[in-house]
Amino acid sequence: MLKAIARKIVGSRNERYLKSLRPLVEAINAFEPQVQALSDDAMRARIVELRQEVAAGKALDDILPETFALVREGSVRSLGMRHFDVQLIGGITLHQGKIAEMKTGEGKTLVATLPIVLNALSAKGVHLITVNDYLAKRDAAWMGKLYNFLGLSVGVIVHGLDDAERQANYRADITYGTNNEFGFDYLRDNMKFYKEQLVQRELNFSIVDEVDSILIDEARTPLIISGQAEDSSTLYARIDAFIPLLRKEKDFTIDEKARTVLLTEDGVARMEDVLKIDNLYDAANITFQHHVLQALKAHHIFQRDVDYVVKDGQVLIVDEFTGRLMPGRRYSDGLHQALEAKEHVEVEAENQTLATITFQNYFRMYKKLAGMTGTADTEAVEFREIYDLEVISIPTHRAMVRKDFPDLVYKTQREKFEAIAHDVKELHEKGQPVLVGTVSIEKSELLSGLLQKTGVPHDVLNAKNHEKEAEIVAQAGHSGRVTIATNMAGRGTDIVLGPGVTDLGGLHILGTERHESRRIDNQLRGRSGRQGDPGSSRFYLALDDDLMRLFGSDRLKGLMDKLGMEDGEPIENRMVSRAIENAQKRVEAHNFEIRKQLLEYDNVMNQQREVIYSRRRQLMETSTPETFALDYIEDIVDEIFVPLEAAKGAPDAESLEVARTQIEDLLDLKIDLATGDAAEKQAVLDAAKSRQQNLSDIAGDHYKEIARYFLLDTLDRHWKEHLLSMDHLRDGIGLRGYGQKDPKQEYKREGFELFQQLIYSMRDAAIRALSRVQIRSEVKEQEFQHKDETANLKYSAAEPAEEGKPEPKRRHEPKVGRNDPCPCGSGKKYKKCCGAK
Predict the structure, then answer these.
(1) Of 162, 311, 789, 792, which residue has the fewest beta carbons closer than 10 angstroms?
(2) Which 8-state DSSP code applies to residue 372?
(3) Which GO terms are recorded in the biological process aspect for this UniProt protein (predicted)?
(4) How far apart (Å, rounded) are the C-alpha atoms in residues 469 and 711?
């Protein structure tokens, strides 16, 4: 009550923020006459001057009004479009590192040009992230006319570019691209051996278009680069053959909300019998257990033409939010292989993680982050908690006049789809265009079949027919057009009304089902009513829809029965719509907790990733990699002598033997120890450093690259093994809850212990290798040029994918020539010294 009263008096936070921007908008407008008087060349010259002022230390905020005025005038001259005042407000909001929520058709693409140009003047690069390659190329070409007019360079990062092309595009003032490409380039850069191979610059400023889709919907999907692991593909087909023997409820149970499957005692006994094993839960049989559960999920939870499609002998994932196919993406933990076995296509080998990061942690690395979308307010809490991003609702240029009708709820899906087909036919005959939103390919094809029977011509846009997406969506507002699409299809493309359609009521949106997220429903509705156009929307539901069935339709069904409703007769009631919305809120809260938990686990990995990638970057960029090797040697010698020093000159024979063994193993030195005192410690250190100096003398300038090679090679090999260990740790950490321990805290504790082991083993392995390397006097530099293994790896979001086995890393150990100086440091020729032995 008090909050509501205060809001009426002083306005909401959103209103106060918008009010605070008015002076800036007035300042931009005040520059307009001055800028309009400039010639094209004079405008470009002024941009150069502003860039120089920023380089000299002037703040971007100080030049915002003039820069925005220049961009607006440049847009008029190059694109024929002038930014409205509300678009200026959106641009300021983005520049200040916030999320601008702008309704569909309000010109987000044009709004972004304002902060993009302003921040590009810092010469540190600006990234505009979009949801697919088509939009990245379209917007880069479209808005590129404006940027080029102002003298700024534009790059675009899409699938299929080589490293040289990526470098050039990242070095442009402004770079467009998809979230996947930017994320994978970051991971890939952290697998390179030479700084010249790096493609990305520092992560300076990023504007994320459709920010809710990328930072919310895809946040549960980590980016993973993987290589081929040990092949167990034949086991999937073997297990799949036994799955039809298992009976639902008797042998296994399904939790549809959690999307999990559990074997009952009968099911365990049955599988032990057919697999000829004594105990399915024995540690030795954990692989069988894993394969059985994944096969059950493949058969009873994941549905063909809903979660995936089979095309050209491959199982392709369907994005649940966009309805688009995702070639190259693969489910993890063997689920994709289980689906391949179920569909009787070739089962590809499993993969091992080589590098991974979540979108949450990738985008939080930018110095400044902003976003745009038509629907962010429902997720404002998550944006604030996870990304420290505030959501600002930008007013529309013209008032919204779309009519959103109450939901119609039917008893069964059959009745619902019959009603939809009937209503679509009526609207078509009237001439009003209709966009029908479905939640799956299966539903879109079912409705298409019904409409064919009624004789209604229509277009179907789903994952099986997405090539003409922009063309189909662009025509969807013309008189009499009926377009069936997955809920998110055509996002980023305006539906412009054809001649005479405004008089017919504008575009009608017909939703065939409620999505788990209100935001997805709002995005579908937002396809209509752009820029003050008329429009309407309505959702059709059935009590056996997944959302209704899983989240409390029993009370509604009882109500419909009490009312004595006839078959085919719907409920149209605002209270019913509110009840459905409350169910959606519960699902959203549940999904938020899942994403939050994913982030909490990944934060442990992120701290480790930052340490390793920082060390890698230092090793790549340093001109003196040998200093790292010498530091490692000092650390190793210090640790070996700690127990001996604690004995204060009187160590026991066992401690001396342990130290002597470690010196021989790690440093390849045979030195007898008597007291373990400071003098003996110094002798060991001098001998180890002398070994490296001799190596340097023989190899000359090549020694630096030899040291760099071994230091990076051992880091990469051990980091890869560590990622596998962390995967295994996480898989089983949930069981700690049965021991009254917090799994997340246990994961942090054990993960830290594993990381400490990684640091020590990485260091020890590098020095062990460097202490044993032998060099020819005429060694060629190419012998230590690291092969770019990333060429044969598959980069996929969602889950690991692989395309061919990567080249194994090889340790190069050139031999010493017989007439070369002996590497032992004697000064004799090798053939007369160690080579004669």
Answers:
(1) 162
(2) E
(3) intracellular protein transmembrane transport; protein import; protein targeting; protein transport by the Sec complex
(4) 49
Residue whose pair of structure tokens reads 């942090």 in the numeric block: 748
Q: In the structure encoding, which two tokens stand for residue 151, read together? A: 């003298």
Task: Classify 763 in phi/psi space as left (phi over 0), alpha (psi -120 to 50) or beta.
Answer: alpha
Interatomic CA distance for residues 488 and 466, integer angstroms? 12
**pLDDT at residue number 764:** 93
Q: What is the DSSP letter of 394?
A: P
Please, is 126 exposed, middle or buried when counting C-beta atoms within 10 Å of its C-beta (0-12, 13-18, 19+)? buried
Phi, psi of 102 (to 5 degrees): -125, 135
380 contact partners, CB below 8 Å, separation of at least 6: 390, 391
Cβ atoms within 10 A of the Cβ of 550, count?
13
d(CA 744, CA 735): 11
Q: What pLDDT, on a 0 to 100 scale, did the predictor assign at position 232?
A: 61
Q: Which of 306, 375, 258 is nearest to 734 (CA)?
A: 258
The distance in angstroms from the start CA to the end CA of the chain is 93
Q: What secondary structure letter does DSSP report for 367?
A: S
Residue with tokens 């060629």: 780
**For residue 813, is pLDDT > 90?**
no
User: Full-prediction pTM beyond 0.70?
Assistant: yes
Residue ranges at the known binding site for ATP: 87, 105-109, 494
Single out the residue of 806, 817, 748, 813 nearest to residue 776, CA to CA.
817
For residue 719, how many C-alpha atoms fall within 13 Å in the half-sphere facing its CB?
21
Alpha helices in 526-573 (DSSP H): 546-550, 554-562
| 3-class DSSP string for 16-33 | HHHHHCHHHHHHHHHHHH
Q: What sign does the dihedral 466-471-473-478 (CA atoms) show?
A: negative
- Rounded CA-CA distance 740/777 in Å is 62
Give, in words, the CATH class of 403-572. Answer: alpha beta
Residue 490 and residue 416 in contact, taking contact as beta carbons nearer than 8 Å: no
Known binding-site positions:
87, 105-109, 494
Domain residue ranges in the chain: 10-222+361-393, 232-348, 403-572, 604-836
Q: Which tens digit of pLDDT belongs to each residue from 441-472?
A: 888 889 999 999 999 999 888 655 555 666 77
Asked whether 333 and 339 are in contact (CB, 8 A), the reply is no
Please indicate whether the domains covering 10-222+361-393 and 403-572 agree at the CATH topology level. Answer: yes
Strand ranges in 168-288 using DSSP code E only, listed in sequence order: 174-178, 205-209, 223-228, 252-255, 260-263
10-222+361-393 belongs to which homologous superfamily? P-loop containing nucleotide triphosphate hydrolases (3.40.50.300)
Pairing between β-strand 571-572 and β-strand 408-410 as defined by DSSP bridges: antiparallel
Per-residue pLDDT of 10-59, as tens digits, reads 568 899 999 999 999 999 999 999 999 999 999 999 999 999 999 999 99
pLDDT at 730: 77
Query: What is the DSSP-derived secondary structure letter of residue 396?
Result: P
Rounded Cα–Cα distance for residues 69 and 65 (Å): 6
Using DSSP, state whether 504 is helix, strand or coil: helix
Single out the residue of 143, 125, 121 nearest to residue 206, CA to CA. 125
CATH class of the domain at 604-836: mainly alpha
Judge whether residue 677 has pLDDT over 70. yes
Contact between residue 567 and residue 411 where contact means Cβ atoms under 8 Å apart = yes
Q: Which residue has the higher pLDDT, 295 or 572?
A: 295
Distance CA 106, CA 108 (A): 6
Residue carrying the six token digits 């493609």? 199
Integer Cα distance of 432 and 402 in angstroms? 14
Cα 238 to chain centroid distance, Å, stands at 33
The tally of CA atoms less than 13 A away on the side-chain side of residue 17 is 17
Please report, for residues 517, 774, 781, 783, 820, the alpha-carbon distance to residue 778 in angstroms, rounded to integers and kept in the order given.
Answer: 66, 12, 9, 11, 9
**Rounded CA separation 679/664 (Å):** 18
* Domain covering 232-348: architecture: Alpha-Beta Complex (3.90)
Residue 221 CA to residue 360 CA, distance in Å, equals 10
